[in-house]
Every structure is written in structure tokens, then in C-alpha cells.
Design a protein that fits this description.
- InterPro entries: GalU_uridylyltTrfase_bac/arc, NTP_transferase_dom, Nucleotide-diphossugar_trans.
- Its EC number is 2.7.7.9.
- 40% of the residues are buried.
- The strands form 3 sheets. The chain has a 9-stranded mixed sheet with strand order 5-4-1-6-11-8-12-10-9. It has a two-stranded antiparallel ribbon with strand order 2-3. A two-stranded antiparallel ribbon has the order 7-13.
- It starts with 17 loop residues before the first strand and ends with a helix.
- It is α/β, with parallel strands linked by helices and 312 residues long.
- It is 35% helix and 22% strand.
- It has 2 domains: 18-273, Spore Coat Polysaccharide Biosynthesis Protein SpsA, Chain A, CATH 3.90.550; 276-312, no CATH class.
Amino acid sequence: MSADIDRTRPLSSETVTKAVVPAAGLGTRFLPATKATPKEMLPIVDKPAIQYVVEEAVESGLHDVLMITGRSKRSIEDHFDRAYELEEALAAKGEEGKLRSVRESSDLAQVHYVRQGEPRGLGHAVLCAEAHVGDNPFAVLLGDDLIESADLLRRMIEVRQEHGGSVVALMEVEPEQVSLYGCAAVEPTEEDDVVTVTDLVEKPSQEEAPSRWAIIGRYICDPEVFSVLHRTPPGRGGEIQLTDALLELARTKPEDGGGVRGVLLRGRRYDTGNKADYIRTVVDFACRRPDLAEELLPWLREFVDRQGEGRV
């Protein structure tokens, strides 16, 4: 059945200029560390995870960033604000490198904030962006997912500009992992890295999964998604699921704001919402740093050898 499209909404621009970053989650998987510190502020070496996400948006040409926050998230706002006393202290000591790193986050983008109020799911978090986004397509970047480069998001923006509708990022996962994601049924297109999404199931069992193509934390949403989210009832987990809204749009004609395409991930993705993957991410990023790799890599080799020999 086709979606009941709100035809009173103005026609949207094809240009994606704004990014929405949901950051209102409680971070319960990282307790007690996240009791007073937002999970988005957990460091990947010496930079909070959420800064990598904002940098990705900026590298893709999106300089207007809206954070969807909640209670106890003030440190996110502080991080992207100026810290004048700290800057003055570093300048007085002549520590120019540290001064540049401190100013970097506040100079990245125009960062705005709105509170979700209560955690009612990703779909509700996206709905909180409606007043800021207006009637234009926009990107959604989840802070748990770090993508190796901005190429994926740039490609998704290109697909939106060419075809309209909404676009999701897809990654092929192992069968035992499909229950952790929203999974898509897809049909190929003339472009090797682009598919048409025909069905979406949120966290299915292996038997119910339409494929092994899982949605990861990057979306380009047509503004019509807001009309759909307003009437989307709570789904799995009692939350308003963005996946449910995208499924309705996938069944709608592109000229009516519908249609969903998927861009297949070719690079690497890091899931910092999982403890083991978070640790792997920190190690991986540290080993890429020239100032750390020279000391860290020999230690890691020695550590692995000790584990293989049964020594502590």
C-alpha cells in the first residue's frame, strides 16, 4: 500500500546541506563510564568519537550540524564551544600544537542543539530535527559508527541528488549478526555500488532476515520522512523506528518523496557502541598515528606473543 503523502509540504531542494547527529542515548553498554560522561565523548585515542563524526560531515560539505541531545550531555556542547581560559593558558605557555587541537573542534562547523526530552527511538530523534531541517533533504550520522573516510557519505549525497528519495548505507554482515541491525531486501541497479531497497526489517532473526545487507549509521533522508514519522507508531522495543518510516517511503513513488536506495560500503566501519569493537577501534587508530605507532606496534607484537605462549 502506498504512503499517504502530505502534499501541502513545499517541494524540497535537491541539495543536502545539513547533518543531524542523534546523541541522546543513555550509553548503558558502557556503564559505569557513561554514568556522568556521554558515550559520544569517550575518546578514540585523544579525540572524542563524536568529533570524528562531525569531521566526516564537514568533509562531505555539510557545515550545518544539529545535535539531538538529552540530559547529562552538556559536555558535548562544551567540546564544540570555545574554551577561552584554556586557550589563553596554552597560548601563554607557547603550546601552539595543543592550542590548535583545542580550537579545531569549535571551528569545525556551525553546531546547533535540540533536546529529545525522552529516548523514544531513532525515529523520534530524527523527528526532533524537523524545525531545523525544514523542507530539505538532510543527512543523519549515528555517533556509534565511525566510517574510514567521507567517501561513503559523499556518494550517498550524489545518489540523492541524482535520483531523489532517501538513501541508506548498507554493509554485508555475517548471518548471526543480522539480528543486530535493520536489514534490507535489495535489487541491483545499473550502478555497481547502488541498489534499490524493496523491504526493510528491524533486527530480524536469521530466518526472517530478507538479506545480509544491514543498514549502518548513515542516512540521507527526504523531508517527507517527517510526515511519515509523525504517524509511525512505536515498533520494536516500544520505540519509533526510523526503519519503519523508511519502509513506507520505499513503497512510495520517488516523485512523491519516496523511494529508497542503498549505497554499498566499500571501506571500513568501526562500531564504537560495542565494547570489544571500541577497543579495537582505539588500537587501530593509535597504530595509524606516527607519534604512537613506533612505540605501540612493538609492544603489541610482544603482547600477542606472550598470549600465544600462555604468559601474562
